[in-house]
């Protein structure tokens, strides 16, 4: 399954177009490698996603073409969530 579709179906990101944009800006890694929106994701992969000043790391548990809102969180396991300071991400 494409990474942009997985992020939308799992509701980590609300819209597929936003997921595509995030991936194409180099803010997503799959198993430590930079991912583009068309990159494939499979069960067991570790995703590292940067949302502004927050970095979330999840493990892919299930791939589904569609899911109900209440079942979406079962598609992944949250491994870590950290905040990065604004000053370390921007140059003076």
TrEMBL record:
One of its GO terms (molecular function) is rRNA binding. Pfam families: S4. The keyword RNA-binding applies. Residues 1-64 form the RNA-binding S4 domain. SMART domains: S4. SUPFAM superfamilies: Alpha-L RNA-binding motif. InterPro entries: RqcP (IPR025490), S4_RNA-bd (IPR002942), S4_RNA-bd_sf (IPR036986). Belongs to the RqcP family. HAMAP family: RqcP. Associates with stalled 50S ribosomal subunits. Binds to RqcH, 23S rRNA and the P-site tRNA. Does not require RqcH for association with 50S subunits. This is RQC P-site tRNA stabilizing factor. The gene is rqcP.
């Amino acid at each position: 399954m494409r990474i942009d579709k997985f992020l939308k179906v799992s509701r980590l990101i609300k819209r597929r177009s936003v997921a595509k944009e995030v991936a194409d800006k180099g803010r997503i890694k799959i198993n430590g490698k930079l991912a583009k929106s068309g990159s494939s994701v499979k069960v067991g992969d570790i995703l590292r996603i940067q949302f502004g000043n927050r970095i979330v790391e999840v493990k892919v548990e299930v791939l589904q073409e569609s899911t109900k809102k209440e079942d979406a969180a079962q598609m992944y396991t949250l491994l870590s969530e950290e905040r990065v300071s604004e000053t370390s991400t921007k140059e003076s």
